[in-house]
Amino acid sequence: MIIALCPLNILEVQAFSSYIKPALIMRLPENIMEEKINRWIAAGVFAISFATYLLTLAPTVLFWDVGEICAAAFSLQVPHAPGAPLFLLLARIAAMIPFFYDPAARMHLLCAAASGLTCAILYDIIVKILRRLMEDHALPADNFILYGSGCIGALSLAFSKTFWQNAVQTNIPAVSLFFFAVLLWLGLRWYLSEESEQSPKQILLIAYVAGLSAGVHLLSALAVLPLFLLWYDRYHAFSREHFMRFAAYAFVLFFLTGAGVVSILPSLLGGECFGIKSSFFSFLPPIILLSALFGIYECYRRRYEGLRMIILCFLFVVLGSSTSALILIRAQANPPINETNPSSLSRWALYSNREEWITTPVLNRRWDTEPEKQTFYKQYTSDFDYFLSYQTVHMYLRYLGWNFIGSEGNFSDAGIRWRQFFFIPALFGLLGIYKLWRAHIPLASALTLLFLLSGVCLAWAQNQQGPQPHEYDILYGGSFLIFSLWIGIGISTAAIFIKNAFADPRKQQRSVYGALSLAFFFVPVNMFAVNYASSNQKDNYVAYDYAYNLLQSCENDAVLITNGDNDTFPLWYLQNVGGIRRDIRVVNLTLLNNSWYALQLKHNSPYGAKPVPFLSTDAELEDLQPVKFEPQMIEIPIDSVTVQSYRSGYPFTSADSSVLKRGIFRFFMPNTILQGQLKGLRPQDVLLFDIVKTAGFHRPIYFASSVPPNGTLGLRNHLQMLGLAYKLVPYSTVYSWPDTAERIVSANLFNTAYKLSKIPQHGFSWRGFQSKTNSPYEGTVQMAVANYRNMFFRYAVQAMNVQHQPEKASRILDRMEEIMPRRSVGMNYKIKYDIASFYHSLHNRERTDELLHELVDELKVTTARRVQEAFSGYNSYIVLFTCYRELQQPKEAEAVLALLQSVYGTDSGVEEVIAQMRRQIPAKP
After folding, report:
1. Which of 18, 150, 506, 826 has a CA 20 to 30 Å removed from the CA of 410?
2. Which uninterrupted H or E stretch holds 350?
3. How large is the angle between the packed helices 477-500 and 424-439, nearest 10 degrees?
4. pTM for this one?
5. What is the mean pLDDT of the chain?
6. CA 254 – CA 260 distance, rounded (Å)
7. Per-residue pLDDT reduced to its tens digit, 504-514
8. What strand order describes the sheet that includes 585-588?
9. Both ends of the chain: CA-CA distance in Å?
10. Closest alpha carbon to 525 in 145, 112, 57, 156
């Protein structure tokens, strides 16, 4: 320690040779030089990774949790449980530094920096392990293997699909994985170093960082559990009976400490313990902490060093996790985003324990009773088949394959593309784990356990039910990091094997340089090239502009009904951070099933907005339950002044006579729950009806276009399209196309908002769609784009069928192509087929043939897979046949019928369908 701190030269060091081991003196300058080189290379790994993320960073908010987290962090509000309080603090600091104009981009930069540091830490972990595994690394070729393998392994993580996409947006898993890497690095540093007086301090630092990591995500702490194996190896000789007893103690200690700090202590503070409530429990946490301090003193006095370290570790974990108090403090300020309202100790305990989350059973793998889930289960023969095929292969091994074998694309349920990376990263990873098990069983055991716990075991523990609304690969970053570590070890193993094939030192050196250069090209460089397009978010304004356009589709003081995360969280970001259209109250149907949310809507006025109208009392809102309900005609009274305000400009028909004559709005409301013969309504339906009835058309109510039919209470035929939102109106519509407010929709679609407005303004924003560097948008963005195109299409249909203006209809569709060109934003073949058919009805042969040729090129690939689809108007084979028929290509159309026959065989009704289609083929001239 003294030698490391004093500026002694070599001669001065040699003067102390009688007091210091000669071997240490001879290696000191070399070790210092190696350490400097190692640090510079680690800095280089960080620079390459961070620069890549900076160049592909999202410029603003994205879909899913990004909007909620950014909005919550900007003003330190309360997001969904468990809240990630430390992450919120870090993101808030990042948002205050003006790196970029948009605060979301500043928070994205935090995740980019954390991800770059994670790669640098992984590099150093690989080097540390290789120094233990390699017998000698004195030659330049050996050092090249050492550092080169570390770089390739770290960069394979940096450019992997999941890690890269997490790094360019505000995402809790990105910072969580940084803490995961830090904990692993600290544990290996302690294990691989010589025994010294610093060991207790290192262990306490690990405990403190583990506590801090709980303020980001609980999965980070998984990195601690395998360290117990390394501790056992360091201090005990292996004995099966002794090891099994130690493993049991370690698991109990780990989970008691983790659950005690994260769940049990908050519950005790809230006056509850394992379902038993008592004010006495509130005094237990301070008693426990004081007892721990006294226990430290007693252990020190009686020299119980092991027990003293356990108590100290517990206190350091508590100290690190104290950031969770931020949730309680900020909830008491009643911010606009205050999910679960954990403003009291008891509610904070519920929040910390995620009581409102659905608890999944351990053994029953197909437990969900929802009809959609039950239909999905029928694809699997048994619980075990579902567990193996879906929960293991589809929901984990597929993600592992995405990152190290290849992915079919950026769409939902994309499979593995086996030839994308030529299986090289996966092969090196398998070689690495094989080498580690052969060379160092304790290290291999610890890392394999960590890989399984943060990967497939986590997938099993979640007991996920298909189909899922989005992919969950972000949860398994820890296992991907371990696999990249194995890639580094595997590359070093291959390089050493190639080196040892030559006796000449020069040939050895050249062979190593060549082998590592090839490995660098086929692993990180190839992964970079393949994943760049799907990870590049630098022009992705879709979520921000979609939220802006949705808000600007509404009038002043509107109540906007949304369905889920993606049509709600970006709105929260625009209102809370951008200050845009704060007069609108957003009502999320999913959250409306919770009492705390309904009470906030009723009583709160964020930024001066009007409360949401409810007739229900607070007591009724506190006791939300599903209710029995028989489908029936509902009547809502409307006063004469409101009726007169709607008379002008609205197409009332004879079906609306009750409104005009009696001031009664009538509609048929179906049930939304069906269990056996019992029919009912969900709490969200009860409260939505309350809002509609209370507003009475005095307050405008809008439904986002993403709200499904079962979320509209049967009001589908009373909604008028004004853009991306549908306004509830007191008249009925017979068809889907006449209910468009032509003047407003035209103003929104044909005017571009180059400067975004905080107050109502017609004109939509369309940024990023025309960019030539656009990434292939993922499924959520594609759904948003589909809503846009549906809006254009409905408007065009109205222009044709109601106004009888085919030229105008053609201009509307041309405007859609101008805004969202197909070359930049792919179009689903079903929408493309509908548009082609519509152009055909407009007698626009040029556009029709253009789309038909695109459909042929696309569907030839699809039908070549010979997959059976349900017979419908959008069946790929039928659409391809129709395209050939319209293009006057009878030979190709006949070939599709032959393919259809071979795929469906003798299925019922196939022969009749084929015969009917054959009669549609034009006769040869």
Report:
1. 150
2. helix 345-352
3. 80
4. 0.89
5. 87
6. 10
7. 888 989 999 99
8. 585-588, 559-562, 701-704, 725-728, 719-721
9. 96
10. 156
